[in-house]
Design a protein that fits this description.
Length: 350
């Protein structure tokens, strides 16, 4: 079975993807600096697989380290090759993701996200590993007003976090020389991942106060901390902004199909939107959460957030066609699973 290096594998999306990859039998090297996650997520992944009677002990190897340390990354490629199990491909999740923090401290974001990615890609090149799935974001489309955003929609980043995603996309485009095509690259642009593993054993575990709406809805329901809904005068059916929320397990499964697709096909670079193609407003999300979980989500309306977009929904046809992937879980599933995670782990992994 192929060996995959997963960067950022103890984080929110990484840990869910790790559980799916192990279930499929892949052999994994997981790297994380633990700057925004806990190693306990991997203990929980082991629990999930144990319950399914899947033996993974030899297939989950964790290395604590930072991608900005190139000698550390080199050592992973070298020791894997020495073991006779070279790394066949990489899924690159590691990165910082708080938009507001990136505005306050852009250098921190360029240092971590850009230098880290550059070192990784350089080391891959030197070690002749040329298959990579990269976590990009719908943030590269900025304030796009297209009804549905397709991969050819205008790119226009509006904050340093977005710039770091775009510059890594550009680097990947540059190394994929149009004539020689030596690489296999999938750039996945995620829309709004929410929810948690159905078991309630792994989920989103932000170490700082969250800024995204879904963990704030959970906190509002749990701690009765009122959620601020940013604006009720947008030109939408109920005046609140619309987003494309995708269950984190559907997103995790997109990575399995993407790396599998790259392994089985000719060298190429593909950009793919990973969303459901369905838009829901903030109020739709709150009401669904309240209904399926039978809880109240206290909220007040406040001013629009600077830089917000009215509506961001994916055209996901390209991902569906190329990967033969389909998001299967509903908004109800996302709300139910996210709440189960919170109830089972009120303090996250701690
Ligand atoms: P996360 O913070 O839970 O996971 C990222 C992981 O990367 C963390 O475990 C962190 O400790 C690790 N990390 C960060 N910098 C590192 C470094 N230099 N070296 C080694 N490890 C490092 O975030 P997530 O939600 O799982 O996001 C994963 C990826 O997906 C990120 O690149 C993020 O930008 C991207 N993304 C996330 C979302 C979202 O809404 N969650 C949306 C679009 C794109
Ligand atoms: C944010 C990021 C984006 C990133 C995406 C997924 C910004 C400006 N953009 O986008 O780069 O790709 O997350 O990680 O942060 N909302 C409230 N109250 C809140 C928080 C949010 O009403 O306290 C609303 C927002 O106005 C928005 C919706 O909820 O309409 C979703 O917000 P959020 O979860 O922050 O995601 P995005 O805005 O899509």
């Amino acid at each position: 079975m192929k060996r995959i290096l997963i960067t950022g594998g103890t984080g929110f999306i990484g840990s869910h993807t790790v559980s799916c990859l192990l279930e499929k039998g892949f052999d994994l090297c997981i790297v994380d600096s633990l700057i925004n996650s806990s190693k306990k997520s991997l203990e929980r992944v082991k629990e999930i697989l144990k319950k399914k009677n899947i033996d993974i002990n030899e297939k989950i190897n964790f290395f604590k380290g930072d991608l900005r340390d190139k000698s550390f990354i080199d050592s992973l490629f070298k020791s894997s090759a020495k073991e006779g199990k070279p790394i066949d491909g990489v899924i690159h999740f590691a990165g910082l993701k708080a938009v507001a923090e990136s505005v306050v401290d852009p250098i921190k974001y360029w240092d971590n996200n850009v230098i880290g990615s550059f070192n990784l890609i350089k080391s891959m090149n030197e070690n002749n590993c040329k298959t990579i799935v990269f976590s990009s974001s719908a943030t590269v489309y900025g304030n796009n007003s297209d009804q549905l955003i397709s991969e050819s929609s205008n790119i226009n980043t509006i904050n340093p976090y977005g710039s770091t995603k775009l510059v890594v996309e550009n680097l990947l485009n540059d190394i994929q020389d149009k004539n020689s095509r030596k690489w296999k690259i999938a750039i996945l642009r995620y829309f709004n991942p929410i929810g948690a593993h159905h078991s309630g054993l792994i989920g989103e575990n932000p170490l700082e106060k969250p800024n995204n709406v879904f963990p704030l809805i959970i906190n509002a329901a749990y701690e009765k901390d009122r959620l601020k809904v940013f604006g009720n005068d947008w030109p939408t059916h109920d005046g609140t902004c619309i987003r494309d929320y995708i269950h984190v397990m559907d997103l995790a499964e997109a990575h399995i199909t993407a790396i599998d697709y790259l392994f089985k096909n000719n060298n190429q670079l593909i950009n793919l939107n990973i969303g459901t193609g369905k838009g829901y407003s903030v109020l739709d999300l709150i009401k669904t959460f309240e209904k399926v979980n039978n809880v109240e989500v206290p909220f007040i309306f406040s001013n629009r957030r600077d830089g917000d977009s009215c509506k961001l929904v994916a055209n996901n046809l390209k991902a569906k066609q190329i990967l033969n992937w389909n998001p299967l879980r509903s908004l109800e599933d996302m709300c139910r699973d996210g709440w189960r995670w919170k109830q089972m782990n009120p303090k996250g992994y701690f």
